[in-house]
């Protein structure tokens, strides 16, 4: 088989729904213009994120099989890198040669790559090659990865934006009643909000814990919005709530800071969604930076690279709980003994109601024909051939960024 053509589509962050407009602490919260902690600056994240959320790559072959992959997140630079560099390397090649093609793509992009957009572009192409391999074999990709290690994939409910405490409590109860045994909330404030912000962050955790009782695992996401000093103080304060993990307390380049926070924290520390390749994750593991690794297959270098990262993590006894729960992630989790669960984005009832009243329907994964669907806190292992990343063409057109 031969690769004949690669096409790219830039997809708007609007396909993620309005969730980018809700309050939470982010890596940019220290700048007032980009801070939406109080919910009165809903465009804050869009101002620095740019318009593109995912870049979809379609790889055509002379056998009539098309593979789909996506890079996240994303800027138009991903499309440029795919078009100017990667497609020149892989068009005309056999899509089955994934290891060699990955190595070529990686080496050719080193001068401007190594982390960020170039590796996200490689991720998208690599995922499309795995999709082709599954489709050619007529098998779900997890079978090519060594087969099933679990009958269904436990999922944690990831949302709980601190819009207000009443909604937060009812949303947490909604997830517990739907069968989720784990959920993740968003913190709201960072060092810029001082002790008052710390008190509010604690109130968010307290609200969710009170709403669901002590049998549900609760994680929290700081989205790189804290400093080492702030994180140590904040996490100390959260000790009574028995948290499952706290995610991305500091910026990803501060690996020593991660290790310092982890050493001091009364709960496990996670991160890795903004780290890239085996070499980046090797640093996190060898320097004891975290307890749970969260690479994203659409960023870290695709499935070919995620398998290497998972092997290293398992040798360090660090579980991998990938960032975002797209179908390619589900194939990986199904096949890995080191990946216990998937992230899953349910729709809060209060959001659904508001959407029916005011907005046309948009939500995460809108661009896919068969997005993951959790039942009773778990997602069925995807069974179709390939990675199950078929596109919803109408949605793709709707959210296309020119
Ligand atoms: Mg996160």
UniProtKB/TrEMBL annotation:
Residues 165-268 form the Mandelate racemase/muconate lactonizing enzyme C-terminal domain. Gene3D superfamilies: Enolase-like C-terminal domain, Enolase-like, N-terminal domain. It holds the Pfam family MR_MLE_C. GO terms for molecular function: gluconate dehydratase activity; magnesium ion binding. Residues 355-402 are annotated as: Disordered. Belongs to the mandelate racemase/muconate lactonizing enzyme family. GaD subfamily. This is gluconate dehydratase. The lineage of its organism: Archaea, Methanobacteriati, Methanobacteriota, Stenosarchaea group, Halobacteria.
């Amino acid at each position: 088989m031969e690769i004949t053509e690669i096409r790219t589509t830039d997809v708007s962050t609007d396909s993620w729904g309005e969730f980018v407009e809700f309050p939470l602490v982010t890596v940019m919260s220290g700048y007032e213009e980009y801070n939406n902690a109080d919910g009165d600056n809903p465009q804050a994240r869009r101002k620095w994120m740019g318009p593109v959320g995912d870049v979809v790559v379609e790889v055509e072959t002379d056998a009539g099989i098309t593979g789909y992959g996506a890079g996240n997140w994303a800027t138009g630079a991903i499309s440029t890198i795919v078009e100017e560099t990667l497609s020149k390397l892989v068009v005309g090649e056999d899509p089955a040669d994934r290891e060699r093609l990955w190595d070529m793509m990686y080496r050719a992009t080193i001068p401007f790559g190594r982390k960020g957009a170039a590796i996200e572009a490689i991720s998208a192409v690599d995922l499309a090659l795995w999709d082709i391999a599954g489709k050619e074999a007529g098998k779900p990709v997890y079978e090519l990865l060594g087969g099933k290690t679990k009958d269904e994939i436990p999922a944690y409910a990831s949302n709980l934006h601190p819009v207000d405490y009443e909604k937060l409590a009812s949303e947490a109860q909604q997830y517990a009643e739907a069968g989720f045994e784990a959920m993740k909330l968003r913190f709201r404030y960072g060092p810029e909000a001082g002790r008052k912000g710390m008190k509010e962050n604690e109130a968010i955790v307290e609200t969710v814990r009170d709403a669901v009782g002590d049998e549900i695992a609760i994680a929290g996401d700081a989205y790189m919005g804290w400093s080492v000093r702030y994180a140590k103080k904040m996490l100390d304060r959260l000790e009574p709530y028995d948290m499952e993990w706290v995610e991305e307390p500091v910026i990803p380049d501060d690996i020593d800071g991660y290790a310092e926070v982890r050493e001091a924290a009364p709960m496990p520390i996670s991160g890795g969604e903004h780290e890239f390749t085996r070499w980046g994750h090797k640093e996190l593991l060898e320097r004891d930076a975290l307890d749970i690794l969260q690479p994203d297959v659409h960023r870290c270098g695709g499935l070919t690279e995620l398998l290497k990262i998972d092997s290293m993590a398992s040798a360090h006894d660090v579980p991998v709980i990938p960032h975002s729960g797209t179908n390619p992630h589900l194939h990986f989790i199904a096949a890995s003994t080191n990946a216990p669960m998937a992230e899953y984005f349910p729709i809060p009832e209060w959001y659904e109601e508001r959407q029916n009243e005011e907005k046309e329907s948009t939500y995460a994964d809108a661009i896919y024909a068969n997005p993951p669907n959790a039942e009773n806190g778990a997602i069925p292992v995807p069974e179709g051939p390939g990675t199950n990343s078929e596109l919803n063409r109408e949605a793709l057109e709707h959210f296309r960024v020119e």
